[in-house]
Amino acid sequence: MTAVDVPHSSRSVVLTVSGVVEETSDARSLVFAVPEELRSKFEYKPGQFLTLRIPSERTGSVARCYSLASSPFTDAEPKVTVKRTPEGYGSNWLCDNVKVGDTIEMLAPSGVFTPKSLDHDFLLWGAGSGITPVMSILKSALTEGSGKVVLVYANRDEKSVIFRDELRGLAAEYPTRLTVIHWLESVQGLPTPDQLATLATPFGGYESFMCGPGPFMDTVHKALAEAGVPRTQVHAEVFNSLAGDPFQDVELEEVTEEEAADAATVEVQLDGETHQMSWPRKQTLVDIMLAKGLDVPYSCQEGECGSCACTVLEGNVEMGNSEILDPEDIAAGYILGCQARPVSDHLKIEF
């Protein structure tokens, strides 16, 4: 593999692979060494992901998002876990080529699939490599939180179980707080909504976080609805292949005097601070925040990753591609900053 030394954008960094762990026959973890000067940039929350730049002979590179399986509270270095997928260029390249000492370009941790508090009781759902962000939340909740954790983990068979030994060790270490339920297709078949609803019913007050293939998540959504779990307690992580190139610096279009005069005004709450800005109608929320030099969370700018999800507290926006948001999310006021343009004259938005 060719070493990467210089980042392709002002937002990306190059890290060295400090460890490669063969988890199963088709999944491996990559551990990254973070130099002291980048420590603050690489602080992350349980459940977040990294966007990696993977070389491609056809297109120069492709961008892929991989969840952090490590916990910021228990692991000295960040770790992503990659499982091969049929026809999956990025996952196969990473599994075939990367070794200790190689360098990989990436964006800083991002994503909103993360608990607001680790002191909740959690009902976690993972299928296949969907265990990765769930594992980060699980370890963090056990270490830093005070509640109980139930994990329902679905796989094809016993050989497919990623983190099998680590989960066994955690279950032994936290016998009164952690319950691990394995669902093996080879033994039980594919789970049905009724079966999972039966599992979920005793834990109706728990916060549910789920990650896995689409059909699995659809089944879990139906099961939780059947079990009477409120939609506000259900959180899902969805990844799509990124069509754009998040490793290109964004060039903003010039705003004419007429467009500036017609601009909306917006109050944005970000990281505990409030920012007042002018918002020209043709620009997205991410555009104007970048122009102001704000550290806005975003990755793809295509509406495909959910990194820039935020909440409209006042006013209305129009959005381009927002398929990653559930109808319930949109009804609750969630928008994608990279797709949102103002309709109202005055808006208030919270990240």
Task: Write structural notes for this entry.
- There is one protein chain.
- The two termini are 38 Å apart.
- This protein is α/β, with parallel strands linked by helices and 351 residues long.
- The model has no long low-confidence stretch (mean pLDDT 92).
- The radius of gyration is 21 Å and the shape is globular.
- Strands 4-3-6-1-2-5 form a six-stranded antiparallel sheet, covered by helices on one side.
- The protein contains nine helices and 18 strands.
- It is 21% helix and 30% strand.
- Helix 5 packs across helix 6.
- It has three domains: 94 residues, Beta Barrel (Elongation Factor Tu (Ef-tu), domain 3), CATH 2.40.30; 116 residues, 3-Layer(aba) Sandwich (Rossmann fold); 94 residues, Roll (Ubiquitin-like (UB roll)).
Features:
Elongation Factor Tu (Ef-tu), domain 3; single chain; Rossmann fold; alpha/beta; 30% strand
